[in-house]
Amino acid sequence: MEFFKRVVWFCSLLTLFSSLVSADTDPRDVTAMNSLCVSLNLPPLQGWKPVGGDPCGEQWQGVSCVFSNITALKLNGMNLGGTLDIGIEQFESILEIDLSNNHIGGSIPIVLPPTLRNFSLAGNQFNGSVPSTLSSLTQLVDLSLNNNFLSGGIPDSFQQLISLVNLDLSWNNLSDLLPPSMGSLLSLSSLQLQNNKLIGTLDVLQDLPLQDLNVENNLFSGPIPSKLSAIPNFRKDGNPFNTTILPSPPAPLPPQVSSPSPSSTAQPPWISGFGPSYPEKQKPPEGQKKEAFTSNTKKVVIAAAGTTAVILLGLCVCLPIYCKRKNARRDPEDAEFGGFNDDKSQNKASLKVYHEELGAPKGLVTKLDEQKGPESSPKTQDEQVASDQKRMASSSTGASLKQCPPPPGNKVTVNDENQMNKDLSSAGVFTIATLQQYTNSFAEENYVGEGSLSRVYKAELSDGKLVAVKKLNATASGQITDEKFLHLVSAISRINHPNIVEFAGYCIEHGHKLLVYEYCENGTLHDALHLDEEIHGKLSWNKRVRLALGAARALQYLHEVCQPPVVHQNFKSANILLDFQLVAKVSDSGLGSLKSSSSTSVGHNINSQQGYTAPELDSGSHYSSKSDVYSFGIVMLELLTGRKSYDSSRARGEQYLVRWAISQLHDIDSLSRMVDPSLDGSYPAKSLSRFADIISRCIQSEPEFRPAMSEVVQDLLQMI
Q1: 522-720 adopts what CATH topology?
Q2: Are 487 and 472 in contact (CB under 8 A)?
Q3: Residue spans with biased composition (Low complexity) (predicted)?
Q4: Which of 121, 122, 386, 669 has CB 3.0 to 4.6 Å from 268, enough for a Cys bridge?
Q5: SS3 257
Q6: pLDDT by residue (tens digit) across 311-368?
Q7: DSSP E strands, 369-453
Q8: What is the pTM of this model?
């Protein structure tokens, strides 16, 4: 009997062990992989599925497991696109994520798996800021976010990252000072910060156990701490360092100086506090003590007089500005751009600084060879930065800018002009002469198309990359001031989404206003459906569903992520561009205010004639997110039928697509006859019915019955 019990116990143990070895992947990790598959635009990787599956048991490409838990995701250089909007935060036990050298865009997720030890997103197209929630990754050893388009400051979030050994933030657009918490990285061996716009000193790094430090091509200033010189591999070229010993305010002044020099009062805050002019522990000779006391007394009097003079001068300067701002009336149109009480002289001065000092963008499409940094001396550079920062901070009025934050998870409402200046600094600044050179003087062979606001030209940059130059016509350009145009540029420069055409820069010169965007080589969805037979033949049913999903995600981002929400106001198939992979990218996002500033009635009539305008707009209602949803429904109708939204060549009852189609969407027989003949029946009937149901809800005559774009996105995801 005892022997029998032992046999049963052994068999049970063996069965349990076998079940662990062959267990399916943890359901939470399966959900994470499914979500990630969708976020990455359904990559053609072995085993990957948007629904269900067993990543560990089926050995999905790039996935490593221990028993039923996914522990590593290694997809370096797999030509992946999409975003990391959803999925990555759901992993339970993952230790390593390597998505480097791909084409993934959007923002870095705020919520990350706390178990991560190695995390690499290097060599992608991520934008927005470095998330402050990195502080939760207490087990992190290696973090690589280099070669992206990240901007803003480095977050002060390193206090708990005591295991971090390698940190690479190079080749981005990061700015501001190094955060104090960097001094807590007691295990840090390698730090790469080159090719950013970081300012201030390197003092916070001097006590770290660094073996490799690269700070080249930034705006660091001040003396270099002597401890850093002992680092075996220390690279520092391309910074306005001041290698001389700087005097400290409490230190005795040289005998020949009878009053504080103007430059000493203008030093930026990060220069002060480097210690006295005497080397540490060195004391003045005994014979100088009495003289020093008398001298110090004189200096106190001089300093008091100087302080009084500075205060009086400040009052003389500030009071007229305060009175001017207090009496200024806000232009009603300011609401379109963010509600600033504009100081024209300040804006013109800022514009001059932008054109003279800003380097070329490190964005997707442009890096100008001729744009160079300032050539001032280190001291002048530091003083200018400090002065600009103070001026920017003092000019804030507390009103909200009408502009977009980074993608989901980073909702930010900007309340000061300082942010607008940062936005403009991150955008490329072009000159008329440069754009004339790149477009061959806006030659007809580079003409792409024309809308109610502008003409669009293709331009080839000096490095061979293509961009699209939108040249505002005289009417549109004349109805928006330079200041409001800069507010507009600031707003659209913050719109970042993989399904929205990326903004590359602007030009404002000699009365001309131009916007520069990435170039999409496959033209518009309108042309693909109605004019270009070659691309039309590539638009299978599944491709059309994915195009609808991409456009829906763009509108969802504008409506539900941007703060305040952005209404497109001109959504149509001609404003959906197709890149080389036939991925949908919505153009003219954020230009609604420009459209409103121009001939609103004319633009509305044109849209109405084209068949995209929601019914409520014809009765005097304002554009809203629901009117965008209606226009989206019309685009879906074009994808379904292959017909134009308005076609004057058809019979009178069929000219407006929506009027012809609306009564047939719920009849299965009529619906099958509506489908684009080029599809030749190659579509699932159930998928067709779902597609038609989404259209029907989007084109409801009453706006309150139309769905939010987040609902539309979820419905389309279920069809893939």
Answers
A1: Transferase(Phosphotransferase); domain 1 (1.10.510)
A2: no
A3: 258-269
A4: 386
A5: coil
A6: 666 665 555 554 444 443 333 333 333 333 333 333 333 333 333 333 333 333 333 3
A7: 428-429, 447-450
A8: 0.48
